[in-house]
Design a protein that fits this description.
The protein is of the alpha+beta class and about 375 residues long. It folds into two domains: about 10-150, 2,3-Dihydroxybiphenyl 1,2-Dioxygenase, domain 1 (Roll), CATH 3.10.180; about 165-360, 2,3-Dihydroxybiphenyl 1,2-Dioxygenase, domain 1. It has nine helices and 17 strands. Strands 6-7-8-5-1-4-3-2-9 form a nine-stranded mixed β-sheet. It has an eight-stranded mixed β-sheet with strand order 11-12-13-10-14-17-16-15. A hairpin with a 5-residue loop joins strand 7 (about 120-125) and strand 8 (about 135-140). The longest helix has 15 residues, at about 345-360. The mean pLDDT is about 90.
Length: about 375
């Protein structure tokens, strides 16, 4: 079948935050992103300030409202700092909006053009879970740094990168009984396929559980796992997220590297905090996953998790939440052929998250 919604990849991810300047500085200092573009009072934009940061193929837009009447204030009030827009790079934004709205998507905003001396871009948006929006970005006729309305930005402080390359997947947390609603949305409205499913037997510990389904677009460049809570003895990480975020939203962004030891070492040296993995995890890890190319000792020292599927193996590690609220975090992942998502690590990962929940008094 012809893909009615061809996606070239993730164009950018936009965070709405309380202080864009300070948050942008954090992602530059801690994660190694660099300046790309800016929009604000100096560029004629009166209602918000946005810093665009880039590392390899990853673009983050960090935005704060400027006035008390901005609708972005409502997003902050409801959710705190978090992801508002997941922008998808397309060749035809008008067609993408038409195809998805005809299939049942609720329009966030109709297609419109933005132009400046560098050309014209077309944007359109549809609503997804919670207050999250998918923005279709068509930039084939635009040659500027980012989008019209932004000017190139390159300040003196440009830290070296940390080896992050592209967004591997982005995970959405939804409420009780909503996982199938949203996986059906991605299948029907956006033409995605379900590639993996996990139930509460796969993802559970003594205390908590969740269920998850992974949706992927046709060429595999965009993957969205969707999580919902499952019954457990105590409050799961998904319930904690929904309580503090005020509803469904983006839980974590998985970013790829081709040398996870170097990347995690660099991130830790810059103050990024990761979940703690007990040394006992490594006692029989090679018996479970088989031979790997990496030396086990640096992985053990850094707490990097290992898992294998029929295609190969992967290495992964998860940061602690990067907000004061226990909501959004990042996953660092290196794939050595594996196409899966670390099923063999779920128990160790969830126990690590539960230790953090216990420290917060929210387990």
């Amino acid at each position: 079948m012809e893909d009615f919604l061809p996606l070239n990849g993730t164009d950018h991810v936009e965070f709405i935050v309380g202080n864009a300047k300070q948050t942008a500085h954090y992602y530059k200092t801690a994660f190694g992103f660099q300046d790309l573009a800016y929009a604000g009072l100096e560029t004629g934009v009166k209602d918000r300030t946005s810093y665009v940061l880039q590392q390899d193929k990853i673009r983050l837009v960090i935005t704060s409202p400027m006035g008390p009447d901005s609708p972005l204030h409502e997003h902050l009030r409801a959710h705190g700092d978090g992801v508002k827009n997941i922008a998808l790079w397309v060749d035809d934004a008008r067609k993408s909006w038409k195809e998805t709205t005809q299939r049942g998507a609720v329009s966030a905003f109709e297609p419109y053009e933005l132009s400046d001396e560098n050309g014209t871009a077309v944007l359109a948006g549809i609503k997804t879970y919670g207050d999250t929006v998918h923005v279709f970005v068509e930039r084939k006729n635009y040659q500027g740094a980012f989008l019209p309305g932004y000017r190139p930005l390159s300040r003196e402080f440009q830290p070296s990168d940390t080896g992050l390359m592209y967004i591997d997947h982005m995970v959405g947390n939804v409420g009780w009984g909503e996982m199938n609603i949203w996986t059906e949305f991605y299948a029907k409205v956006m033409g995605f396929n379900q590639i993996i499913s996990f139930d509460d037997k796969d993802i559970s510990t003594e205390y908590t559980a969740l269920m998850s389904k992974v949706m992927s677009n046709g060429n595999g460049r965009v993957k969205f796992p969707i999580n919902e809570p499952a019954k457990g003895r105590k409050k799961s990480q998904i319930e904690e997220y929904i309580d503090f975020y005020g509803g469904a939203g983006v839980q974590h962004i998985a970013v790829a590297t081709d040398n996870i030891v170097e990347t995690v070492t660099a991130l830790k040296s810059r103050g990024v905090e990761f979940l703690y993995v007990p040394v006992s995890y490594y006692n029989d890890i090679l018996d479970r996953v088989g031979p790997i190319e990496e030396d086990i000792e640096p992985l053990k020292e850094l707490g990097i998790l290992i898992d294998r599927d029929d295609e190969g193996y992967l290495l992964q590690l998860f940061t602690k939440p990067v907000m004061d609220r226990p909501t959004v975090f990042f996953e660092i992942i290196q794939r050595r052929g594996a196409k899966s998502f670390g099923k063999g690590n779920f128990k160790a990962l969830f126990e690590a998250i539960e230790r953090e929940q216990e420290n917060r008094g929210t387990l």
